[in-house]
Amino acid sequence: xxxxxSQRSVQFLNKSIANQATATNSSLAMAVxxxxxGNFNPLENxxxxxxxxxxxxxxxAEVITNxxxxxxxxxxxxxxxxxxxxxxxxxxxxxxxSVYLPILKKKFIR
Length: 110
Prior knowledge:
By secondary structure, this protein is mostly helical. It has helices spanning 7-22, 27-36, 41-51, 57-84, 88-108.
């Protein structure tokens, strides 16, 4: 039996994702680092874990859309931070992550 969570819980989940996306040393940021290396699993598992309890397709779509928007913002933040530090290696990694992100997005958005 699957549990259907309320809209309020989805809002809390979205807020949790947003908080993770603003911290450049969070588990979400580490998953983005792995994405830049072509490893989709940590980011994919992070999102799948968030979606476990959601049956409603509209709520799932809302969480997925929010997640990918926040990850895209996080990639841009990390790229900007690397540029401010003149870290060419990290800038290139974030460029790679921004290329891999739409590939992962296609797995979730159909």
